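Box S2. Input/output pair 1.
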Amino acid sequence: MSSPSTKAVILGSGSWGTGLAIVLSHHFKEVLIISRSEQQAAEINASHTNQHYLPNITLPENIRCSHQLSDASDAEVILFVIPTSATRETSIKLAEIGIPAHTPLVSCSKGIERGTGTRMSAIISEALPNNPIAVLSGPNHAEEVAENLATCTVVGSNSEALTATLQDIFTTANFRTYTSLDVAGMELGGALKNVFAIAAGIAAGIGLGDNAIAALVTRGLAEMTRLGIALGGQPDTFMGLSGVGDLMTTCYSPHSRNNRVGKALGQGLNLEQACKQLGMVAEGVPNTLSIYEAAKETNIDTPIINAVYEVLYKNKSATQALQELLTRNPKAESC
């Protein structure tokens, strides 16, 4: 990065992309959000707001928005904050623009690709193999980041030098950034926790209490760790911010889209109704399918993932799925 104070680009104008733009506005002269919507770009540029995703938040003056991907060509750093289903197509289009090979690319979306089980950083690297790649993950609800509430995150890559540089540009007085070299573990923790957040929401929706939800989240952590290790992550990573930290936040917070979808399912809505009520993308819904498929390629026992998959894609009632989980044969906790 020749001048880490010049221009940062955020691909994606949702709540998390906008929240990260606020973080980076402390270190860059210009932060450019790339949106698919001309109307949204006009609002951000004229009013310095993004009311649909972050109502009542005024954006710093150095944040702009464009609907042209080509405006990313001169960025000092590019963040991918888009739905995981759009990562491959966007990476290919970005490569066609001609991004300099020294520009760091940071994946900030949580999920794995359906059919291939490929992590987002690997998809980006396939299209842009010469660029340095990193991942940002952790218990980071955009609403709180935008309000400058204290938050911790993790940035990871295979390069200690790159993680150190990114640590500097992501750190503010209220946004504390740690580093990791376990990119796989970080990404898997961020993807897997979405499924367990749906399960926790279902449990709350059908009226289960704190005891049952705490048990569900704890067993979700065990399941996340087992499967995450099998898919290439390091055990310690799942005990950190991008693992158990993210899991706890998304399973209990009212900001969690996946938790809200699960709660609506537990209250009797079908999947289409629950997603329509949310009005935004809940990555756990498509990722349940891709994670279920990836888990089937291993010999790992994933009862919670299986239950959520059956609710979302096999029309099993939420009540039945949770009851079946809670009445499984008892076994040692370490299993």
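Box S3. Input/output pair 2.
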Amino acid sequence: MNAEAAERLFALEVFAKRNLVIVRGRGAEVWDAKGRRYLDCVAGIGVAGVGHANEAVAEALAAQARVLVACAGVFYNDRRAALLRKLVEIAPPGLARAFLCNSGAEAVEAALKFARLHTGRAKVVAAMRGFHGRTMGALSATHKKAYRDGFGPLVPGFSFVPFNDPAKLRGAVDDGVAAVVLEPVQGEGGVRPAEPGYLRAAREACDESGALLVFDEVQTGFCRTGRMFACERHGVIPDMLCLAKGIAGGVPMAAVLCRDGLRVPPGKHGTTFGGNPLACAAALAAIAFMEERRLAERAEELGARFRDRFERRLPARVRQVRQAGLMIGVELRERCGPFLSALADRGVLALSAGPTVLRLLPPLVATEEQIDEVAEALQAVLA
């Protein structure tokens, strides 16, 4: 039985599958079961920032697997300690402690719990078009009706304001709000960057009301937008920073970075697999690779290169290009689904971000020639 038949028979079909069996990857490329090569602008939905089959990550995993894979959080551990220290070193100033977990949704769930516990308040303000995960708390902070339908009642206390509207945000944040949760660049919502001053307005509103500011950088973190963290572009430091995806080179891992002074008493939260030595070793290797190869600068340069090449012959059906580093959204004047298939036929794998937005999240180790190839393929299928 081949992979496609086995998944069709045994998997709970929560994904709308594409007719491809991906079996191997290297750098910014993947190959299917028939041996065809693709440029991967899906990258595990932004996970493979340091590239597929990264040798540094693979070696760290193999070495750690021979030493210790699991270690409960009730014990100290050398790899966990090293990663915690590294995360605080690279974090925006003031984020001095971290909670390690396994996925972006878990990081958001933890931040919501920590905010309610710390403030003694219940309300949470989030942005329209925002996406924060599919578990019950993270889903309650997620705006899109299609994601929420069928799962009610969701967690009470959540409200939504328009993204990039400082006045509406200020009006929603009062002394009953525990947290304001925002993405510096909305990913699933169409690759929409925060406008200048918006995150600053959120910081001021939280400071005035006593609410905590939470940035969801699950997709934007770890060099994706041309900075280690996207909030650095705005000079705004949150009270909590939710991270996942690119943190460990493809190994499931996440973290919540918390400002100094925010404490969670023992027993109030926990995780079985979070901060296990295997994932910590992978994250340490991945972050070291990002720093050594200057992948934030690389993402900035390659993103600008893509935009320059693509906009030289901008197809008429393109409404707008939105881009921060190698987080790229191409908004069309029509539905993007057929063009995803046409791109795959030309050897480029891409995502949607809503019905009319093509999303490109290539590995940050892509070459200039590969970025040019993506731009040319996109121009061809949209012409």
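Caption for Box S3: The chain has a mean pLDDT of 97. DSSP finds 13 helices and 17 strands in the chain.
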